[in-house]
Amino acid sequence: MSEHGFWKLAAEDPKRVALVTPDGEAVTAGELAAQSNRLVHAMRQKGLERGDAIAVMAGNGREMIELYLAAFQAGLYLTPINQHLTAAEIAYILGDCGARLFFTHARYADSARAAADQAGLEAGRRIAAGPAATDGFVAYADFTRGFSDEAPDGRTAGQVMNYTSGTTGRPKGVRRRLMDFDPDMVGSMFAMFLSMFGIEPLAGNVHLVGSPLYHTAVLMFAACSLHYGHTVVLMDKWTPESSLEVMQRWRVTTSHMVPTQFHRLLALPQDVRAKYDLSSLRHMIHAAAPCPVDVKKRMLEWWGPVVYEYYAASEGGGTLVTPHEWIGKPGTVGRAWAGSAIRILDDDGNECATGTPGTVYMALGTADFEYHGDKNKTAANRRDGFFTVGDIGYLDADSYLFLCDRKIDMIIAGGVNIYPTEIENALLAHPKVGDAAVFGIPNEDWGEEVKAAIEPAAGVEAGAALAEELGEVQLPAHVRLRHRDAARSERQAVQEKAARSVLEGPRARDLSRREIDRLGSQFFLVAAGCALSGSDSTRSREALTAASYWREPRENTVSIPLSVLLALATSRQTTRPRLRSTSTPATRASYVWAPSSEPGSRRSTCTSMKYRESSGASGTSWSGPAR
Length: 627
Known about the structure:
Blueprint: H1 6-12, E1 17-20, E2 26-28, H2 29-45, E3 53-57, H3 62-74, E4 77-80, H4 87-97, E5 99-105, H5 109-119, E6 126-129, E7 138-139, H6 140-144, E8 159-160, E9 163-164, E10 172-175, H7 183-195, E11 206-209, H8 216-227, E12 231-234, H9 240-250, E13 254-257, H10 259-266, H11 270-274, E14 283-286, H12 293-303, E15 307-313, E16 316-321, H13 323-328, E17 335-336, E18 342-345, E19 358-363, E20 370-371, H14 375-380, E21 382-383, E22 386-387, E23 391-395, E24 401-406, E25 411-413, E26 416-418, H15 420-428, E27 433-443, E28 447-456, H16 464-469, E29 478-482, H17 484-504, H18 513-519, H19 521-533, H20 541-551, E30 557-559, E31 578-581, E32 591-594, E33 612-616, E34 619-623
Parallel strand pairs: 1-12, 3-4, 3-5, 4-8, 5-6, 6-7, 11-12, 11-13, 13-14, 14-15, 28-29
Antiparallel strand pairs: 1-2, 9-10, 10-20, 15-16, 16-17, 18-19, 19-22, 19-23, 21-22, 23-24, 25-26, 27-28, 29-30, 31-32, 33-34
């Protein structure tokens, strides 16, 4: 028998608060266990057996946790689905994972209904939670009404099958074999992952979920916390100050976060940050993207030595770094944790020397997986018992891993490797930048050039004044600022057309679904438009239409004026870079950075430059010494 595990602990103390919903409802462990039991009985009545799959698109609500617990004790695969996907994308996942039941919430009924129709899922297998009946769906409450709340027979551990957004093509399910053991035993084993950070079972721990549960790590940390007897507090919509209020109110001890949340917390005025009592925090863990060194330092100064970091993927992992280790090696994502190992390989599969960037490979260990329905992709990302998700990094002399960027995101200009993360980190250090995404677009002479999309911080107006102020920071050659609301309102109408155009353009770089997701909803239109305006997609009617759309001025769109446009020098070479004009209308001129020496350098970084404006018969140019 296991020492911990959700159901064992629930039987020992059924009145313990196990879950707090976004609206503040406290749900006891006994209530959660009872509902998960009813769900198993209802699913079995629908004919589901061990190894079958259910899909859930329910947001951060009580239902998501109940369904996870039900699938985990019934030997089922649960596939969480991002509710922001299009109906076609949802339908693909429903079909690919083989979902026999589809659970959603009334808030997402329109896209869920369209997706279920496309996937051919019959009406009786569509279930929707919510305050009122939803056309075409069985009500969640009705689905379990009349079923026993007693533990089902034949309990056996299930699994979560997350879908990666992928670097190319359609997303793939990360599928692991089922373990034919008691769910409490397997749950306890999974929860031991928390112990690597020093997190103990019970001990008054309260775990905050401030990110979407459809993400692999977010659901995993929430599940492990349940199996360790922690109270899990859900937020359906994360904002910086509201998260501080929740931390104070529920005396939060642990959470899983991402660097963007840190950045936005630090953007709060000092008096707002100071009014909340955060003394309960013990282990605030972050991952998912490299954290700018300055951001991490400031978080440690604010919260103290409670900020832990790890590096892993849906497929496995990984490395871990404690606050004290990180202070000694700023920027590292840690050393391989127990049972794992890290290798850095070049393109030929040879081990890279210490300090030399290459592709990061992680040991498969005992947590082997396959990409569901794609043996070729499963085999392609492996070498001798190690797998990669395409990240670039290097190991130092003490075997600490430092990440550069993801290989698919790396920009190669004239043979120079440019890592967008480095540029993004420089931009994010500015207090008036809310978020930034840097990416490459095609260029005839240099292969690719650098572009960026910047979202101003809350309360900051996008315009020439901000652009002038950002002149003190490093900027890529092409920058466009857009108001968040404008991008959000236009996104649905243009997204699919623009994405398809980028992919179909004969000269366009392969912009994958993962890259689109990475830019975020408030950036997508800018990113797609910028990429299209730089490509010569003459054979694609849609590309011309979309590119034309983006070349025209739009309301709430600000192009940085010529007089304040700066270029970013992205090379460690000592030779002076030059800036040359591209063939765009004079009123909307854009510029391309290029090194004046021969291409071929294998490594790049961010350096600041200052330019002066000059005029000539052929148009405007920039020149000036590096500073």
